[in-house]
Amino acid sequence: MSHDEDDEFMLLIMAGISIHDRNDFIASHYYKHMYKEPCMASALSGEAWMQEVLNGHPIRCVNAFRMSPDLFARLCKDLQSKYDLTSSDKITIEEKVGIFIYTLALGLSNRDVAERFQRSGDTVSRAFHDVLESVTGRSKGYKGLARDMIAPIDRAFPYIPYHILKDKRYMPYFKDCIGCIDGTHVAVKEQLRYRGRKGIPTFNVMAVCDFNMCFTFLSVGWEGSAHDTRVFLHAIETPSLNFPHPPEGRYYLVDKGYPDRKGYLVPYPKLRYHLEQFENEAPTNAQEAFNRSHSSLRSCIERSFGVLKKRWKILSRMPMFSVKTQIDVIMATFALHNYIRKFSSDDMIFEVLERHPDFIPRDDLADIQNSSSSAINSQTESCTEMKEHRNSIASLIWANRN
């Protein structure tokens, strides 16, 4: 046995002895720096597994990457050609995007994703953040995929939405409505500042959506304890956020948690509103009839949130990212939601909702009491013009109820 071999043999003996000792420094040093058996040595590499999934039954691709193989290929091409995503000597663009989407879809840790793709944790982390940067464009003033996806088709809103135009429940009553605004909570890995109305740490995320279930504006980063009104006012009053304000004569639907302002139509307070409250008894007056129609039309955004959270499990089990990364991850899920909605003609989740227009996926984060609500609401301004418009719609709905 050579001198070097003898030294290594002695280290092995010492490592074996140290297993039974609290001071296992030598064993740790040996296995970390000298013992070089490959860890990710599966015969099925991440690239091979991806090719198997992408070229296999389409359901496998939808389960793993939440979209069809064709749409996955289109996304990879768009991220490369439009948003500067690049491959490297070790990993292709397709595998980078696969790592990213797989993480969002299942809410997995770095370790779990590394095992699935047979890559080191560092490689997985770099790939994830490369794609996240292409989607959000944080380092380029947020000029990524998200900026192009989360926006109205036409900020002038020149047309009556088709969803309203085709449905006698809403036409002509809500012909001037251009979308809905609401907030939702997303679990966050931060303990104190972000603890809010859900009883657990959350972000309070405000979004605007159109009636095609596409999000047209997003405000994310507020702690869960922030009231919806505060988030809303900051969004519409901060020019740099580029909020898509309603043109003259048009408006968004909002619920009772939002202020009564021009361009934002709230329901009648202190009356039945949610659809389940009307299951056993029809509206008894014009105000309740308005509330039921308002709730039915505004449910579009609740359905959109439901689809978003069912598709992207990371929104309910966020890994241990920094707060900034968590914010970008949330933005990315909204952008990909829109991407799938706009470019997939056969997405199964959207097809189910289109066949069942009154179905709203359940939100697992139920509100608890928030003592600040009434104080904030009492300080908001009232808009006579919107109240008169609401009364006019209510009277028309009630007159045509039969």
TrEMBL record:
Highest rank taxon of the organism: Eukaryota
Residue ranges constituting the DDE Tnp4 domain according to the UniProt record: 181-338
Record has Oxidoreductase as a keyword: no
InterPro entries, A to Z: DUF8040, HARBI1-like, HARBI1_dom
Pfam family, one: DUF8040
Domain DUF8040 positions: 42-136
Cofactor requirements of the protein: a divalent metal cation
Location of this chain's protein in the cell: Nucleus
TM helices/strands, residue ranges: none
Keyword list, A-Z: Hydrolase, Metal-binding, Nuclease, Nucleus
GO function term, MF aspect, one: metal ion binding
GO cellular component: nucleus
Similarity comment: Belongs to the HARBI1 family.
Protein name per its UniProtKB record: DDE Tnp4 domain-containing protein
